[in-house]
Design a protein that fits this description.
The complex is a heterodimer.
Chain A: E1 4-10, E2 14-23, E3 26-36, H1 43-46, H2 51-65, E4 73-77, E5 82-90, H3 95-109, E6 117-120, E7 125-127, E8 131-140, H4 141-153, E9 158-163, H5 164-175, E10 182-188, E11 192-198, E12 203-210, H6 223-238, E13 250-256, H7 264-271, E14 276-278, E15 288-291, H8 305-309
Parallel strand pairs in A: 1-4, 3-15, 4-9, 10-13, 13-14
Antiparallel strand pairs in A: 1-2, 2-3, 5-8, 6-8, 7-8, 10-11, 11-12
Chain B: H1 18-30, H2 38-49, H3 56-66, H4 78-83, H5 91-97, H6 99-125, H7 134-140, H8 146-181, E1 187-195, E2 198-205, H9 208-221, E3 226-237, E4 240-250, H10 271-281, E5 285-297, E6 300-311, H11 313-326, E7 330-339, E8 350-361
Antiparallel strand pairs in B: 1-2, 1-7, 2-4, 3-4, 5-6, 6-8, 7-8
Helix pairs in contact in B: 8-11, 10-11
The chains are: A alpha/beta, B alpha+beta.
Chain lengths: ~300, ~375
């Protein structure tokens, strides 16, 4: 029997938790939990001294009430907490200069001192004719420390702390490997759309678009507002300008997240000329999902895309 | 796929200043877990292409084997016999061991050549009727040697490149000027990067909506270009939540270029002093200069340089103008301008970083 993994996905105001086992192209879900957090994760709240303790207590309560042994923990955090930048680097740059240019470029666009960030350059290279494209990621130390404090207060040791834009891209690629062209994956989160754009080969970008300038909760908006905003975002990405080509040319759209409503699918399909789908992991032909928990409704598996994405 | 575990914090990361970055880079070079870079691969190829010298002991044995033996000796040890085929590699050595015969041949050839040359000279210069032969007329016409033709061709190629450089540089400078001189209420520049076909612009605003308005402003300002708001993310600045928005402005390709009438020469020996002199004349402080790789293309060679300056934005623009107008051998492949602090202020200093390509004729 394979070991059990606890994958915990944090969003603004909620947590999604899967306790699952990973087999050969099989995922067995033992526990599926969705719960509102005691506080919204934002810059103000994470500076409160008691915030990690409150969050830790909440995690421990969830674990005990669902009879989960807290081992093999993986955290997945929203990509809006990080800054992802594709950097063009002259392909003839020497190794020493290459590193310096990438790090310098990244540190210059940060709004605070780069002392406050961890700057990663994960394995990714896309080469065009004249430049190398590098993905650089800056993550605020304060935010990572906040989640590490939560783990510490909850007396748990996460093996991995991942970012949802990369894990969801990976899940999509593995679950639906036959997609052609660029795919836009949209998570309907509490405060905005978290968008990942991928093509057959590479993660391309992640974009966070709030529902409103005042960061209103999705629960304060009606369906029409939510969908028309989504329409305008896709149009902006998809429709070319006066000349030249658009940066992204989307071939299909996949929707998921705790706040996504299935009834929106038909409305959105009528708005777009490109295929729109629900990103339901149960639809994959590459993997088999088995559930032992009635809370994991196969029809609503799109709610658990993020915690599922850390398992594979 | 991108795999990123935030717990795998980049080793010894202190990516805050140029000095510290250099330090990190040097440390990484000495660690076992160093990334396998393109440079490393280059090094590998270089090392495998070098002939592997035989161990000294083995060389001695093989050479000893070649010494003419006055009388038959007992057969050599099996070890030496196995090495005998390597004798072929030492044929040049053997030739030098027997200089007498070769020298005779060389003297013979040289002697024959001298006789032929003398005969030709007598034939052409003696006052006979044959001196009016057509070859003399041919000699009087200016004949271009292969070197001269190549030089002329490479000069033409170079000057064509100069015209392209001038056009591209001027276009980049105009774009940088337009963006730096334009101001939009509520929006501050965070970084501006101009390349030949793309402008990357990051701005800070108080709300995502202001970024949307700014996008419309840019679209109106550059109607011939495609302006894209690539993304907006929250960005805390001095305990205030601001929004960092990234824009891409695609630039249309340039049309035909006209030849440059006059210019000044610059080469790899003088480029630093040329750049430094221009920077100092505009009160700019030189932060960094480094030479990158060379690309050899036909008769030309292109060398990459990295040059960083700090000073007022207007001074940076004037520096660019001077170099572009005077030295078309220099191409600004990338111009990156950003403020030293969080937001761009016209009265404040900026850091300007350039990737420069110097075009020269390939030395013969």
């Amino acid at each position: 029997m394979s070991e059990k993994i606890n994958s915990i996905s944090f969003q603004d105001n909620r947590v999604s938790w899967l306790n699952a086992e990973l087999g050969d192209h099989t995922i067995t879900v033992n526990r599926a939990i969705e719960s509102l957090l005691p506080l919204v994760i934002n810059l103000e709240n994470i500076q409160q001294a008691t915030a990690p303790t409150q969050m830790a207590n909440h995690l421990r309560t969830l674990a005990s009430s669902h009879d989960i042994s807290i081992e093999n923990i993986r955290f997945v955090l929203p990509s809006k907490f990080l800054l992802v930048k594709r950097i063009l680097v002259d392909q003839y740059v020497t190794n020493e200069n290459f590193r310096e240019i990438v790090m310098d470029e990244m540190s210059q666009i940060l709004s605070e001192s780069s002392d406050n960030y961890y700057i990663y350059t994960p394995e990714f290279q896309s080469t065009n004719e004249n430049y190398r494209e590098i993905i650089s990621v800056a993550f605020k130390k304060q935010i990572l420390q906040f989640f590490q404090d939560i783990a510490s207060k909850a007396d748990i040791t996460p093996d991995q702390i991942l970012v949802n834009c990369f894990t969801v891209d990976s899940l999509f690629r593995k679950f639906f490997p036959d997609q052609i062209g660029q795919s836009l994956l949209a998570n309907f989160s509490e405060r905005g759309y978290e968008i990942v754009i991928s093509d057959e080969k590479n993660f391309l970008t992640t974009i966070f678009k709030p529902y409103s300038k005042s960061l209103m909760s999705i629960e304060q908006l009606d369906d029409e507002e939510i969908l028309s905003m989504f329409d305008s975002i896709i149009e902006e990405i998809q429709i070319p300008g006066s000349i030249g080509n658009p940066i992204y040319s989307i071939s299909q759209i996949y929707l998921y997240g705790s706040y996504f409503k299935p009834q929106w699918l038909d409305m959105l399909r009528s708005q777009f000329s490109i295929p729109v789908h629900t990103l339901n992991p149960m639809d994959t032909r590459e993997w088999r999902l088995i559930t032992n928990d009635p809370a994991f409704n196969p029809d609503e598996a799109y709610r658990f895309v993020e915690p599922l994405s850390t398992l594979i | 796929m991108v795999k990123l575990n935030l717990l795998e914090i980049p080793g010894k990361q202190a990516v805050t200043s140029g000095k510290e970055q250099k330090g990190v880079g040097k440390e990484e070079k000495s660690t076992e877990g160093q990334e396998f870079s393109i440079d490393s691969i280059d090094q590998l190829f270089k090392s495998t292409q070098k002939p592997t010298p035989l161990p000294l002991e083995e060389q001695r044995e093989v050479r000893a084997d070649k010494i003419p033996k006055p009388s038959p000796k007992p057969s050599p040890s099996p070890e030496i016999s196995q090495r005998r085929p390597q004798k072929k590699e030492y044929i040049p050595d053997e030739r030098f061991e027997e200089p007498g015969a070769n020298r005779k041949i060389i003297f013979g050839i040289v002697g024959a050549l001298v006789i032929i040359i003398v005969a030709l000279l007598i034939y052409w210069f003696l006052p006979t009727g044959k001196k009016e032969a057509p070859p003399l007329v041919v000699e009087e016409t200016p004949v271009q040697t292969q070197e001269q033709i190549a030089s002329q061709m490479s000069r033409e190629e170079l000057e064509k490149q100069f015209s392209n450089n001038f056009s591209n540089n001027s276009s980049s400078l105009t774009m940088a000027k337009n963006l730096l001189h334009s101001s939009y209420e509520g929006v501050e520049y965070s970084i501006l990067v101009v390349t030949q076909d793309l402008v990357q612009l990051s701005v800070l605003s108080n709300s995502p909506e202001e970024a949307e308005y700014y996008k419309n402003y840019l679209s109106n300002k550059f109607p011939q270009s495609s302006v894209k708001l690539v993304g907006t993310s929250e960005s805390p600045v001095d305990n205030t939540v601001m929004y960092l928005s990234d824009f891409y402005i695609s630039l249309s390709p340039l049309g035909a270029t006209s030849p440059i009438s006059s210019y000044r020469e610059v080469n790899s020996n003088s480029i630093k002093s040329v750049l430094d002199a221009a920077a100092q004349s505009h009160q700019l402080r030189i932060q960094y200069f480094n030479k990158g790789k060379q690309i050899k293309s036909g008769l030309l060679v292109q060398t990459n340089y990295y040059y960083h300056l700090r000073g007022l934005p207007e001074s940076v623009l004037n520096f660019l103008r001077d170099i572009i107008n005077t030295y078309p051998a220099i191409k600004f492949n990338k111009i990156a301008i950003n403020p030293g602090n969080y937001t761009f202020k016209n009265e404040g200093e900026v850091l300007a970083r350039f990737i420069i390509i110097l075009n020269e004729i390939r030395p013969s």
